[in-house]
Each structure stands twice: as C-alpha cells, then as structure tokens.
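Homework help board

Subject: predicted structure for assignment chain

Our instructor gave us this sequence and asked us to write out the predicted structure in token form, then describe one feature. I got the tokens but I'm not sure how to describe them. Can anyone check?
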Amino acid sequence: MNRRRFVLSAAALAALPAAPAALLAAPATAARFERGLLWRIERAGVPPSHVYGTIHVADSRLGELPAPVRKAFDGSKSLLLEFLADGYTKERFLEAAMFADRQTLEQTIGHDDFERALEQLAPIGLPREFVNHLKPWGVLLNLRASGAAGGEAAAPLDAQLAALARDRRMALGQIEGVEEQIFTFDEFPMESQVALLKHALVHRAELEELGRRTLEAYLARDLAAIWRLREAYSARYPEIAPHEAVFTKRVVYDRSVVMAFRMQRELRRGRAFVALGALHLYGSRGVLALLEDDGFKARVVY
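My token output:
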C-alpha cells in the first residue's frame, strides 16, 4: 500500500471542482482585495505583520520565494500556517479518509466511475483494494496529485516556508488542527461528495486546464481572475452548483472566519508571517476584510 503518495489535508483544495458563481460574485466593496498576494497588516501599538496568500500545488515556477515575500519573511519572528502535518496527523487523516465499515467506493459511486478512479489514480501508485476503501472526498483530494505525478515541480510554498522557519528556529504554529481538517471533509454530505467526484472523473481534462489557468492567475497575483475562472466553469455545469455551494461555504467561507479570528493572537504580538491559501484573501468575506472589520489595516505589498 503506497501511503507515502496519498495526499492529505485541506492543503489539497485545488484538486476539487470550482465554486458556484452565486457565491463567488464580488461586491463592489471588495475591489481593493482583488490583486496582491502579500499584505502588510497594521494596528496601532504593535509592529506590523504580513499575510501571504499561497497556492497548494508543487510547480517549478514556485521554487523560489519572490523577493518582497522573502524580505517580509526574514523580518518576521513567527510563522503561522494553515496546517502542519507530522507522522500522527498523516496517519489520522488517512484513517479518516477511509470507510470504517464494509462500505466500498465501488458500491458508492458505481462500477464505471470506480474504474475511472482507479485509472486516474494509477500514477501515484494507489492499489485497487486501497482505493476501494477510500471515501469519495479521499479520492477527490488525490486527483490533482495524480495529474502532477512525474512532472517538474518544487515543494509547495507552505512546505518551503516551514523548512525556512525551522532552519531559522522561528516560532512555528498552525491555524487548524487535524481533527478540524478532517471535519471539514468528513461531514460533507455524501450526496455532494459523490456528485462532485463523478463530475471530476468525467471532466478531468477540463479541471486540469482550470488548474493550469488558476496557477497562471496566481503567478500574476490576480485574485479576482482566480474567482472569475471558477465562475465561468461553474456556469457551464449548473447541475452540480448546489453541491459546489456546500463545498464553498464549508471549505472557503467558514474556514476564513476561523482563520481571521485565530491569527489575531500572533498579529497582536507583531512581526508575524501568516501563510494561507490565496482564495481566503479575496472579497468581502475573506480574511483581509474580516481583519479590517476587527480594527486592523491591510495594505498590499506584492
């Protein structure tokens, strides 16, 4: 059983389908959060901190931190990431991603889609018996990894930052624990898990193209373009919009509220560097807007 290749945690969100247009539309008040990956966070009486939007993929173009990002990181005294994986959390997440009873993936999604799942996960070496015990969300989190297997890549940005922090002996923390990450997906309605997985298996090429274009928008530091790409994709497949709406609320909006609240302890100490998925920065319901609601000021740096 090739557990080493199994992708885990909400850091693999890019593997999932787009969010619905109804939830992604940006109100006019969100315009100032449309562009920029690195933001200076200020509040009277404490040294400034920074919030950096990452993308959870491994790509050679992400192999070196941009100079403004590295400068802000080097001037920080603590690093706060979405999630830090260790041996226990990897095993715990793997355990949660598998059916605990006699239920199988083939029974849940049907024979034809199960065979598609086996074929599409083959590049990361997950054997048939193992895949057949995965819940649909466990498969969804691994589809992007199987598409990228064997390609030129660099370590994901959050992993790069964690390594730098350890080398510098910086204070290193996480926003979410493993049980919260598991809850995000494990309480996702099975009907929606199945619908989104079936869609992803049939429309794999389109989703890979969406991923490529999303990375290009990220490299251009265009948060609004990332959302527009998902709006356009969602508009083509309204039949899964209700399931995507549930996904967007649980994985993006609800978690942004938690992130904005929990990072404030470090922000009040000052000189914190917070790294989280760029999708959490955008719009009036993103972490930057939520921080401003709580008395902080956000200014784009890069």
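Reply (TA_rk): Your tokens look well-formed. For the description, you could write something like this. Residues 120 and 146 are 7 Å apart (CA to CA). That's the kind of observation they're looking for.
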